[in-house]
Write a structure and sequence with these properties.
This protein is mainly beta and 119 residues long. Helices cover 0% and strands 60% of the residues.
Length: 119
């Protein structure tokens, strides 16, 4: 299903959407992540579904992203956590982020997948 990541595949300017998540997570198919990259530094803003506004910031080493995130949910509550993602190439040629995340602001941890939105 997945392939090897080309060494020059940057995530700058790419948009991702939730594909799978646990019941503990706020991200779903309506959530859009707008990623930026400058060298080894990565960041994104995200919103949609249960997330009113969110931000993440971290680093990239090869195909691995490590970051912290914080967001405001649709009910006005804040949440924060950490995530480690592996960048892989999906069967359709678009990038996917296979994520291991954990809340810091509340109980819960899981795995999720976000996939690049075509176009």
């Amino acid at each position: 299903m997945t392939g090897q990541l080309p060494a020059d595949a940057v995530i700058d300017g790419r948009v991702f959407a939730g594909v799978s998540n646990s019941a503990d997570g706020d991200v779903d198919a309506r959530t859009r992540f707008h990623y930026r990259q400058d060298g080894d530094t990565v960041w994104a803003d995200y919103h949609g579904g249960a997330v009113a506004r969110g931000f993440l910031v971290g680093t990239r080493s090869g195909a691995e992203l490590r970051f912290r995130y914080v967001h405001l949910d649709a009910d006005g509550r804040t949440a924060s956590g950490r995530c480690t993602s592996q960048i892989v190439v999906g069967s359709d040629g678009l990038l996917e982020l296979h994520e291991d995340w954990a809340w810091k602001s509340q109980p819960g941890a899981a795995r999720s997948v976000v996939a690049e939105v075509a176009g």
